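May I ask you to comment on the folded chain given beneath this request?
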Amino acid sequence: MASAELQGKYQKLAQEYSKLRAQNQVLKKGVVDEQANSAALKEQLKMKDQSLRKLQQEMDSLTFRNLQLAKRVELLQDELALSEPRGKKNKKSGESSSQLSQEQKTVFDEDLQKKIEENERLHIQFFEADEQHKHVEAELRSRLATLETEAAQHQAVVDGLTRKYMETIEKLQNDKAKLEVKSQTLEKEAKECRLRTEECQLQLKNLHEDLSGRLEESLSIINEKVPFNDTKYSQYNALNVPLHNRRHQLKMRDIAGQALAFVQDLVTALLNFHTYTEQRIQIFPVDSAIDTISPLNQKFSQYLHENASYVRPLEEGMLHLFESITEDTVTVLETTVKLKTFSEHLTSYICFLRKILPYQLKSLEEECESSLCTSALRARNLELSQDMKKMTAVFEKLQTYIALLALPSTEPDGLLRANYSSVLTNVGAALHGFHDIMKDISKHYSQKATIEHELPTATQKLITTNDCILSSVVALTNGAGKIASFFSNNLDYFIASLSYGPKAASGFISPLSAECMLQYKKKAAAYMKSLRKPLLESVPYEEALANRRILLSSTESREGLAQQVQQSLEKISKLEQEKEHWMLEAQLAKIKLEKENQRIADKLKNTSSGQLVGLAQENAAVSNAAGQDEATAKAVSEPIQSTSLIGTLTRTSDSEVPDVESREDLIKNHYMARIVELTSQLQLADSKSVHFYAECRALSKRLALAEKSKEALTEEMKLASQNISRLQDELTTTKRSYEDQLSMMSDHLCSMNETLSKQREEIDTLKMSSKGNSKKNKSR
């Protein structure tokens, strides 16, 4: 994404640079043309200056010559004035001199005349040259003004270009900084993306292995367990229960409920329309209360009186269809059996309309033939008769399409599945046509009612009946419009819901297969309901994770615990053996005691004196004590031989002989306490040794795991270092490419600045030259 944005920006900059370069070329051409024009103008100006100087010189020479001639003329006039009085005095004497002066005068006159003509010609030439100079000067000044304006425009263009170039340079610098920041962010994102890709590759590999294993397992199960593929054949696949779409069922039930409400409104409007039409026949054109109506109208009224038996079943059929659509069923055309009953009821109503249509047309003709009927009313009756024919035709068309839609639930070969959508579209078109016809009927009947209300013979009963018929027609129009809009709004859903059926099949094959499928669906739902049991309380996921961490981090591993259990079992077995041994010892001692008591009792029976009895009692007590001492010595000889308390006891028993019972209790308590103490010490030592052994094993396992993790981390460090080096190389290459591109752009900008500076200098020189020329022209 970032590389694409960079390429896009560079392409934009290159396009701008090419545009600026083209503009620069155009400006260069314009400057060169202006330079050529200025050079040509300079040459023309030089030529004009030279011609002007020549004319000025000629003018100066002519003025000088004119002055000379004027002076000469003045001298000649003075001489002539002086010679005239002399001639008067010397007429006689100066005839010869007068002839000479006359010749000179004629010569001077001719010369003067030539000079005057030449002077006039020079004046004319001077005037023409002056006018031409003024004209050329005006042209040059206008040209100079245009050149100055063009130079100002060029200067403004150059200033704008320089400003634009500076802005582009600043923009490029900002873009460079942004791109650098963006490159850094992109590098970070690239690192993260690489890590994610590696993780995703690992996950993909694991998933691929898992899915391949599952696929093999499922294929083996299918090959072993599945006897045949029931989706291969359409006859068997039609019996499979499709996935339950509760949303689809609720939507279909909602749509059916709306359709039921619209049909109920339509049925009510039809009942009112037929009933009020019957009442109107009894009133107009002949009132039945005053006179008998025609046999035709009587028959027509009799048929209209039976309208409820044909109209009410439509509502009942739609109600049965709505009740058949539940949440547990599968609603498609193959399973909507109740649509056939609705189609039959609609067919019976069409038969009713066909039966009453001729009578209705004849009744309208009879109204037209009555004397009360005007031409406007006759025209409305004709329009109504045409509308009634159209309404019957539309109902027949609608019944045909509904009968076609009911065929899949009864005769599967009657309608192909590919034609379902076209039939539904035609149903929508028929409903819209019914709505249009009802609008026409409402319009024409309202016009007819207004005309009849204006008749002088119109009664209040007729007016009320017409209003009721008009209201029922309006209700029919509204109901037809609602049904048409409702069907057109849900047409796409109807067409899309046709694909709702068995998996991997074109649809249900026959109504029988659809019925079997519904039975299987009910059985499956009952079975799933019987299998449903309340779930037992499970350990929360977080608690289970914590327990798992504790179990993994515990020092007592499974093997250590198993060894502890084994050792404890061995100890228990040893203790059981010792227990049995000591139980046998106790039984032997008890048997010995009983024998000794029996012997002493026999001795007591044999003796008769009291002393012997006392001696026997003492001997029995002594023997009992001795037997107990021997039994206790046997029982504890092994574990307490090393103790020091036995010696003290034996020594005290040798020195002092206490009572028999106290001595037995003392010995018994001493050995029991000693046994308990030693067993507790032994158990403590065993538990400590097992604990230390388990800790050692756990530490060794931790050490092995740490070494494995160390090796994995070293490998990851190597890969990370390689990635870092590779990314650094890529970063350096990208930086170099960016720097090269920026340097190229800076070089281009420098060259453009140089060309602009040259153009500025040329324009400044042009300005200076034009100012100098203007100053010269002004001075001239």
